[in-house]
Design a protein that fits this description.
By secondary structure, this protein is an alpha/beta fold. It has two domains: about 20-200, Rossmann fold, CATH 3.40.50.1970; about 205-400, Up-down Bundle (Dehydroquinate synthase-like, alpha domain). Helix content is about 50%, strand content about 10%. It has 17 helices and eight strands. The protein has helices spanning about 30-35, 50, 55-65, 80-90, 105-120, 125, 130-135, 205-225, 230-255, 260-280, 285-295, 300-315, 315-330, 340-355, 370-375, 380-385, 390-400, and strands at about 20, 40-45, 70-75, 100-105, 155-160, 170-175, 180-185, 195. Strand 6 and strand 7 form a beta hairpin. Helix 8 crosses helix 10, helix 8 packs parallel to helix 12 (about 300-315) and helix 12 packs antiparallel against helix 14.
Length: about 400
């Protein structure tokens, strides 16, 4: 067996300073928010806020600590520049003592993180002027690349899905359909000040959300483990969380109310956020963002479609890591070789197939004549972390074969 070793070298590790994980922990949101402010700004999902039961539980928790609240934004899908602008315009004038409570899926928490950052980082001229430009200027690669220099309003993140892990990340993904981009606002200061991860809040998720979010988390765990910027702490966390997720994911599809399997997926999602934020990702996420722009494919579904393709593309460069992951999931031998690596890829392919994930890009509505555009727009930080370096021409061939 080839030993699993990695030189720790030099690294950073940024995570929420306070994490409360477990069923029923939503009742503690008022107590946690009161550590950071005296007035709550609520950013919520469109339907999950009510369907998950969070609305009443949070209202009661805030009443217990005597904290006033204002509902400042509702996410209706993956956040756009227009959504961020509208939310910033709705903020109360008084910012002192505010704390943002974000309750929803990854899109909701991303919207909240962007709003919290802009609330403290806009100049007076920007705040009274062209907010659209001010938002774009703080997104990577599309504006003036203005940094986040002032600590955002504290964010307490409360996920109602088990997928993106954005409750543990340092960025907010914002798209602009009219400009055809999906980019990140990013800063170590944007990591939420607290995360309350209550698996009970995921009970109301429909099957399509469970599939997309669950496979998004699994993709993030795998890609962060393989990433060319991989770090030792995230890899150690993945070796704990991925086997739990691979075992729990089929169970939560069959028995969505099963508490143990839901808890395992919520744990996996949170760990995946810490792992990607402190290592990186790869081709699956690099292409998924462009698929979202081109086809309107939900992020988690795009990642699920790209994951088996990505594993095959990176096999030569990453097969030893695949073998280690297979041994963590099913330690059936003392080998850690190419056979284990093949077993791992087959395992993930089977998991995606049994969940009903499309196997061809054409099934997502991608037109053949748009493959070149997709290849040209699948760059960014995620693609830079891919184990195999891919130029546009090579990626175009991969996407054509997957179409």
């Amino acid at each position: 067996m080839i030993p699993f070793t990695i030189d720790p070298g030099s690294y950073d590790f940024a995570v929420p300073p306070l994490v409360r994980f477990g069923c029923g922990r939503i009742g503690e949101v008022g107590e946690v928010a009161a550590l950071y402010g005296r007035e709550a700004w609520l950013v919520t999902g469109g339907s999950s806020f009510v369907a998950s039961g969070a609305q009443e539980l949070i209202a009661e928790s805030l009443r217990r600590v005597g904290m006033a609240s204002h509902h400042v934004a509702t996410a209706r899908g993956e956040p756009t520049v227009d959504d961020v602008v509208a939310a910033v315009k709705s903020l109360p004038r008084e910012r002192e003592g505010a704390v943002v409570i974000a309750v929803g899926g990854g899109a909701t928490i991303d919207l909240a993180k962007a709003v919290a950052a802009l609330a403290t980082n806009l100049s007076a001229e920007e705040a009274s002027g062209d907010l659209d430009a001010a938002v774009v200027d703080r997104l990577e690669g599309v504006g003036r690349n203005l940094p986040i220099t002032t600590w955002p309003v504290p964010v307490v993140a409360v996920p109602t899905t088990a997928g993106t892990g954005t409750e543990a990340t340092r960025n907010a993904v914002i798209s602009c359909p009219r400009r055809r981009f999906k980019k990140s606002m990013r800063s170590p200061m944007m990591v939420p000040r607290a995360a309350i991860v209550d698996p009970d809040l995921t009970r109301s998720c429909p099957r399509e959300t469970i599939v997309a979010s669950g496979l998004d988390a699994i993709t993030q765990l795998i890609e962060s483990f393989l990433c060319r910027f991989k770090k030792p702490l995230p890899r150690a966390l993945v070796l704990d969380a991925l086997p739990r997720a691979v075992a729990a994911f089929p169970q939560v599809l069959v028995h969505p109310c099963g508490r143990e399997s839901r808890a395992a997926m919520s744990h996996a999602a949170f760990v995946s956020g810490m792992a990607l934020a402190n290592s990186g990702l790869g081709m699956a996420h690099g292409v998924a963002a462009a698929l979202g722009i081109e086809c309107g494919t939900p992020h988690g579904l795009a990642c699920a479609v790209m994951l088996p393709i990505t594993l095959r593309v990176n096999f030569a460069e990453a097969f030893l890591d695949y073998a280690h992951l297979e041994q963590a999931i099913a330690p059936h031998s003392n080998r850690c070789d190419q056979a284990d690596a093949e077993a791992f890829v087959a395992r993930i392919e089977r998991l995606c197939r049994e969940a009903g994930v499309p196997q061809r890009l054409s099934e997502l509505g991608l037109k053949a004549e748009r493959i070149s555009w997709l290849a040209e727009n699948s760059g960014g930080a995620s693609m830079r972390g891919n184990p195999r370096e891919l130029d546009t021409q090579t990626l175009r061939g991969i996407l054509q074969a997957a179409w």
